Each structure stands twice: as C-alpha cells, then as structure tokens.
C-alpha cells in the first residue's frame, strides 16, 4: 500500500512538473507533508507518534491516535478491537514513562525496561504493517474513473471483496460493496478470514516465515499482538533489516546513535554488567555513557597524553583501565569521576597497545610497545610491514598497583596487539605483530604453546564459547578457528573482505584519504557462541558459524553507518542482545536485537 501511494505521488508530481503547474505542485507538497496517514508508511507513522511523545505533547498524541482510530481501526473486525485497546494503553503508558523519567520517578519501574519499550514499538509497527497489507488497492483501467471511486471503499476492510482473484492480472478488478447489515458477526468474520487467505496466497514465500516473538513477554501483556493476522513474521523481518528468511535468528528492535565523538573511534566496549559503555577516539577523548533507559553521557575523560587502549575492570565493574602513549596505565573510577592510580609501565616501550583484565579482577595484562610499532593513523606511503616491532607483555596486580612479572615472548620481544582471558582466568591468549598466537597458563605464568597464525599481524583474538578453540583475525584477511589442544591445527578458515579486517580507509575531498589500522575488537560473539559480529563499510554484519566446510552464513546486516566500522562489541548481559558498531566518522550505533529461538 505504501509503495503504491508513493508511486502515485511521484507520477502526479512528474506530471505537474511537466505541465509547469508550479503552484499546484507546491500545494501538493504541502498536503503530502501534512498528510496524517503519511502515505501509509508505517515508519513515518511511528516517527510521528514518537515526536509527540518526545515533545510531551499529550493533546497531539491523543488527537493523532483518535484520527487513526476513526480512519483505520474502527473499520477492523470486532475480534481485533482488544488488540487496538492494548496498543492504545501501551502507547499512553509509554508516554507516561518518558515524562516521569525526566523527574527520575520510579512509579512505573516495570515499564522502564528498554526491552518493553522496543517490544511495544515493534508490536505497533507489525500491527500497522499487517493492517495496511490487508487493504485492497483498486486498480481501474481508465484514469477518469479514478476520481469516481470513493476513498472510503479503499479503506473499508469489511465491505470490499474480490469476486475474481485472477482479474487483477488484467487490471480489471471487480468488487462489490456489501451492506454492513443483514450479516451475522460469525459470517462477517468468516468472510474476512477468506478474504485475508486469498490475499496472502499471492505471497507464499512470506507466509512461511516464522512469526516474530516480539510480544511474547510475561511482564508486559499489554503489548501482545496475538490477534494480528499471520504475516507478522514478514513484517518482523523487515524490522530486523536485511534478508529476513525462514531461519532468521534475530530481529533488530531498534538502532540508536551516540554522536558525542568528533573523530574516528579506536575502542568501544560494554562493561560486564551491560549497563555502561566506554568509547575512545583518536583524539584521546574517552566517553563513558549509559543506554538504558535512555542514552546519556556519564563522564568525559580528557588527557594531555594520547590514549591508545581501554578495558573495563571486572570487579568492581565501575573501574576503567586506560593505556596511554607515554608508558602509563590509568585506573579511573567512572562513578566518582576521578583517577585512582596512574602506573608507569615501561619508558622504553611507551605505547600501551592492549589491556586485558582477569575475570577475578585482581590483576590485568598490558602490552607495551616501542613508539614506531603502531601509530594511531598512517598514510598510504608508510610501509607497515618493514617497521621493526618490539614490545613486552606484563602482568600487574590491581590491588597493590605493582608489576608481578614479565612474560617470556619467544622467539623474541614483540608487540602484542590483542589479548583475552578465558572464563576463569586460567588461560590467556594473545596475538602479536609477528603473526603468532601464544597461549599462556596463568597458574604457572608461562607459555604452553605458540604457532604462526597469520601472514602479517594478528589484529584480534578471542576464545570460543566452549573454550576448546580460539578465533583470530589477521592482516592477511583471514578469520581462523584454532584448536588449542593441538598447536597450530585449524578447525576452520574463512576469508573476509578488507572492510572487516582493515586497514580502514575513509575518503574525503580532493582525493584525501584517512587510513586507520585496527586497534579495537574486530569481532564479537553472541551469548551462545553461534553467531559472530564483524565490521563492514556500512555497519555491523552478523554471521552464523557453521561447522564443516559450509563457511560463514550471513544472517543480518545492522547497517546505519556512512563510514567504515572499525570496532564492534556484543553484550548479552541484558534480556535483549546489544550490538555496538563504531565507525571512522565518530558515530557509534547501538542496535538492540531480539533472538528468535527455534
């Protein structure tokens, strides 16, 4: 319906431009802008409702919903009236929540959950989408007859019935308008169901998709839309983004933007509780912000010396580790907004490339490298492979703020680009500039195995869900799964594009190009380790990890970015999975996903 109206508007606009009716064209644009039905575009209607809510315009919100009720909802069968009432109640409750949040009043605390708000918006979106999908579009052959058709007959979902479903192929649809009286409620309901089945039989590929479970929550029964017709799965797929299919594992409930940075992002991490995010840009500015229930900056950290790395402490999770370019690591309290300690790591290796805090919170590992190893931004004329790389891997005690030991890096001192602990902190895996992956036993503090993993540097490394393997991304563009019980044995290997691996390129005016080597995490897993989030030129990409030779299967594109995404993170600490994608233009997109369980 929306596409048909939009095409019709375009045709009329082209005709007016061709005839030179500029005054009429201006009136048409004004009328389209003031159109309350928004050309039957569901996203525009949802945006209008949210504008009233965000502007605290209760009168406008009530008037707009009343208009939708008079124009659309009142024409539905009686069986859908409870669903409309539930959506109306949830809409006004959503308004109250937004108003009371300004004054930090927790009267409606059960409805402060981001999951409830996102689920309600998806339910309303699905309901309107299915409503417009069920509407019949009359397509008469002669243009003069168009003006004779009653607009009410287009919107009437109860009275219009197609006598010949195949007649639409010849653009000669025959319809009859039945009177509303003389039929029982049961017969009208049967006619409506028959009509709906005839409509959906034209789209068999859509009806086979799974129904979106966006309204199946126990704490928010007001948002249930079980009475909505069955093509809700197709609409849910549209909300999710790209290519929703029968096995679509996620629905993208919402995507918000954090735009407080003014330069390219280097790191972006969620804390262990899933309540706060810390992001670092190439200018050395750190932002600590929350996103539930609303996106809000909690602290801004400015530094005279350049900052190169960050990591959340695990216990307590309010502490943040910041590595600089002058050989220091700072322990920052995000709640008190002050520095607790500043540790001098190594003057000979002043660049703190990576930080990893143990799950127990008692210690952390830091990688210190020489100045020439990894600049924050390089030009196309600097060959990175020929640069000598030297570094150290050190273990520090968080409580005593003293160095415990220095790890032996065989065959020689090398800059470690990334490090990660397993769930209990007994194992540490690192990826270095010499292309080698090293696995350390943290009970004996020694390397248990090491192997050549990539041609070029190792950019990012993580343990798998079962911790029997590790995954790595390297400069050679490969995404590899390694067996940690057999040194150097590949479980699987996948090739990724430069958009997912780097170096990342942002083109500007007059042929200018900004090139940035990877610093932060390049991939992240979901809570069950079955899907992986990677970078791309337009947003995050989610793949399904398939066993064997079937490779990576793309399941969802998050999108939303105009510049290359350089680092990602995936938090599953909350009910809805939260994906973070940060790009070279300083924008961070927060995408809330709803997992569809098979």
TrEMBL record:
Which GO cellular component term is one of those annotated? Answer: early endosome membrane
Any single GO BP term: early endosome to late endosome transport
Query: At which residues are the WD repeats?
Result: 409-450, 451-492
Q: How does it sit in the membrane?
A: Peripheral membrane protein
UniProt entry keywords in alphabetical sequence: Coiled coil, Endosome, Membrane, Repeat, Transmembrane, Transmembrane helix, WD repeat
UniProt biased composition (Acidic residues) = 215-225
UniProt xrefs under InterPro entries: WD40/YVTN_repeat-like_dom_sf (IPR015943), WD40_repeat_dom_sf (IPR036322), WD40_rpt (IPR001680), WDR91 (IPR039724)
What does the UniProt entry say about where the protein is found?
Early endosome membrane; Late endosome membrane
What does the record give under GO molecular function?
phosphatidylinositol 3-kinase inhibitor activity
State which residue ranges cross the membrane.
Answer: 91-113
Say if the entry is tagged with keyword Coiled coil.
yes
Region (Disordered), start-end ranges: 166-247
The entry's family comment says: Belongs to the WD repeat WDR91 family.
Q: What is this protein called?
A: WD repeat-containing protein 91
Q: Which gene encodes it?
A: WDR91
């Amino acid at each position: 319906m929306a596409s048909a109206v939009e095409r019709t508007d375009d045709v009329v606009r082209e005709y007016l431009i061709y005839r030179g009716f500029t005054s009429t064209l201006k009136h048409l644009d004004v009328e389209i802008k003031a159109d309350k039905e928004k050309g039957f575009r569901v996203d525009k209607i949802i945006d209008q409702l949210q504008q009233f809510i965000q502007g605290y315009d209760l009168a406008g919100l009530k008037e707009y919903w009343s208009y939708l009720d008079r124009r659309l909802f009142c024409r539905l069968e009686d069986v859908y009236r409870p669903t409309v009432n539930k959506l109306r109640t949830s809409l006004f409750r959503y308004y109250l929540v937004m108003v009371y949040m300004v004054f930090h009043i927790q009267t409606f605390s059960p409805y402060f959950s981001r999951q409830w708000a996102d689920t309600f918006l998806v339910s309303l979106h699905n309901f309107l989408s299915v409503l417009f999908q069920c509407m019949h579009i009359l397509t008469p052959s002669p243009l003069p007859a168009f003006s004779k058709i009653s607009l009410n007959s287009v919107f009437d979902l109860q009275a219009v019935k197609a006598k010949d479903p195949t007649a639409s192929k010849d653009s000669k649809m025959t319809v009859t308008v039945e009177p509303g009286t003389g039929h029982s409620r049961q017969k009208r309901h049967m006619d409506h169901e028959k009509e709906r089945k005839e409509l959906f039989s034209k789209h068999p590929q859509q009806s086979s998709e799974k129904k979106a479970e966006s309204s199946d929550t126990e704490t928010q029964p007001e948002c249930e839309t079980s009475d909505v017709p069955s093509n809700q799965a197709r609409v849910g797929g549209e909300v999710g983004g790209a290519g929703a299919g029968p096995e679509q594992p996620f629905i993208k409930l919402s995507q918000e933007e954090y735009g407080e940075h003014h330069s390219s992002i280097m790191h972006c991490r969620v804390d262990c509780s899933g309540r706060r995010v810390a992001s670092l840009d190439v200018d050395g500015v750190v932002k600590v912000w929350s996103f539930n229930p609303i996106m809000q900056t909690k602290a801004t950290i400015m530094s005279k010396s350049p900052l190169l790395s960050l990591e959340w402490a695990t216990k307590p999770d309010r502490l943040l580790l910041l590595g600089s370019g002058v050989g220091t690591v700072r322990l920052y309290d995000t709640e008190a907004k002050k520095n607790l300690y500043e540790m001098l790591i190594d003057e000979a290796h002043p660049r703190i490339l990576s930080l990893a805090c143990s799950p127990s919170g008692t210690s952390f590992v830091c990688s210190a490298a020489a100045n020439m190893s990894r600049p924050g931004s390089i030009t196309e004329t600097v060959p990175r492979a020929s640069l000598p790389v030297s570094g150290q891997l050190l273990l520090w005690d968080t409580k005593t703020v003293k160095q415990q030991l220095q790890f032996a890096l065989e065959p020689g001192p090398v800059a470690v680009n990334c490090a990660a602990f397993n769930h209990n902190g007994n194992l540490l895996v690192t990826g270095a500039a010499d292309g080698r992956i090293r696995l350390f036993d943290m009970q004996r503090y020694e390397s248990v195995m090491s192997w050549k993993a990539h041609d070029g540097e190792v950019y990012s490394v993580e343990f798998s869900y079962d911790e029997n393997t590790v995954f790595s991304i390297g400069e050679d563009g490969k995404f590899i799964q390694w067996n940690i019980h057999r040194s150097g044995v590949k479980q699987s290997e996948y090739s990724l594009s430069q958009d997912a691996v780097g170096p990342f390129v942002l083109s500007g005016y007059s042929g200018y190009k900004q090139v940035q080597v990877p610093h932060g995490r390049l991939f992240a897993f979901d809570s069950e380790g079955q899907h992986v989030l990677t970078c791309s030129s337009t947003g995050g990409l989610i793949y399904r990890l398939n066993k064997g030779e079937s490779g990576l299967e793309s399941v969802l594109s998050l999108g939303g970015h105009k510049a290359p995404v350089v680092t990602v993170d995936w938090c599953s600490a909350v009910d809805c999975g939260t994906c973070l994608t940060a790009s070279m233009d300083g924008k961070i997109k927060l995408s809330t996903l709803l997992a569809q369980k098979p």
